[in-house]
TrEMBL record:
Coiled coil: none annotated. Keywords: ATP-binding, Nucleotide-binding. This is Protein kinase domain-containing protein. One of its GO terms (cellular component) is cytoplasm. Residues 8-17 have a biased composition (Polar residues). It comes from Pleurotus ostreatus (Oyster mushroom). Residues 1-22 are annotated as: Disordered.
């Protein structure tokens, strides 16, 4: 069951004159123990040493990491202590929903951050129900305004693009289509992700894919020709490297082209028509890159042109 986030949609935004943009948009390092009871009162349990120990007891094939965050447990008090995952940044914590055991990821953000504003916007009606919206479901949004932070509670998805089960070309292209379609959806709502990359792509292993990390994302209300400068995402187009004021939507197009190439390399799928689609997306001159909407139309046309037998071919890396 998802929490209705409509009540959060009207939270008054701060004016630019009242906040420090760099300060509110940098990663937060909360004292998780301090907010443990608050999260539990909302129905979310943060992972403890007992939880980690139980996991490795039930799955002995997994080797317990030697990192300090997963040290050997000796006392009952140790078992009740929170156990941060050393593989995650300090603003993320694993847990589960107490009513049904659903695994969740809790992310701490500044209450006036762009990320919170965008997640709130994308997670409220009617955008939440739009089939083009492929965000990870937000289960709750918990604000602690006195401390200037908020917790985003989301379903815990996997960063492994291809699961252990066989994957065919049809399913692979369906995953890519979701990536492109969600970018079209964001651009339609005047949002640029600005950090589209394969490392920011997650799956629930049930045919759904979603972007994460909206820390660099921008929402441009009433700006017909927005420009960004001085940002550093994962996939950097030439104009950004040169320090030029850049079209944020064409930055996303470039990054999407790189994502498609990396996904094809990862899976071993090589489709000449897809390579032809990517070529103009990676044009050095941003004005000549297609819009994300046009990319989606061309992608759909390519998929329709493929032979059904080809679509059923298995992933080369799993043969």
């Amino acid at each position: 069951m998802e929490t209705d986030l409509s009540d959060y949609a009207s939270s008054p935004p701060s004016t630019k004159s009242s906040i420090d943009e760099d300060e509110v948009n940098r990663r937060i390092r909360p004292c998780w123990h301090r907010y443990r009871r608050l999260l539990e009162s909302k129905g979310f349990h943060l992972e403890t040493f007992r939880d980690v120990k139980s996991f490795y007891e039930h799955f002995p094939d997994y080797q317990m990491p030697a990192a300090p965050g997963h040290m050997q447990i000796h006392t009952r008090m140790d078992e009740d202590a929170l156990c941060p995952d050393p593989g995650l940044p300090d603003n993320l914590f694993r847990g589960y929903r107490t009513c049904d055991g659903l695994k969740v990821m809790v992310k701490a953000v500044h209450v006036h951050s762009r990320e919170l504003d965008i997640i709130r916007y994308l997670s409220t009606p009617p955008r939440r129900k739009d089939p083009m919206n492929h965000c990870i479901p937000v289960l709750d949004l918990i604000e602690v305004r006195d401390d200037g932070l908020a917790f985003l509670v989301m379903e815990q998805w996997s960063s492994q693009l291809i699961s252990v089960t066989p994957c065919c070309l049809r399913l692979f292209l369906a995953a890519l289509r979701q990536c492109i379609e969600h970018a079209v959806f964001m651009h339609k709502h005047r949002i640029a992700h600005l950090d589209i990359s394969i490392r920011n792509l997650l799956t629930d292993y049930n045919g759904h894919y979603a972007y994460i990390d909206f820390e660099l994302s921008r929402r441009f209300n009433g700006e017909p020709n927005p420009r960004v400068q001085g940002y550093r995402g994962t996939e950097i187009p030439p104009e950004v490297e040169h320090g030029e004021p850049s079209d944020p939507y064409k930055i996303d197009v470039w990054a999407m082209g790189v994502l498609i190439l990396r996904a094809c390399k990862l899976t071993g799928f090589f489709i000449p028509q897809i390579m032809e689609l990517v070529e103009p997306m990676l044009c050095e001159k941003p004005d000549t890159r297609p819009s994300m909407e046009k990319v989606l139309r061309m992608f759909d046309s390519i998929v329709r042109s493929l032979d059904p037998a080809q679509l059923q071919s298995s992933c080369p890396t799993q043969r």
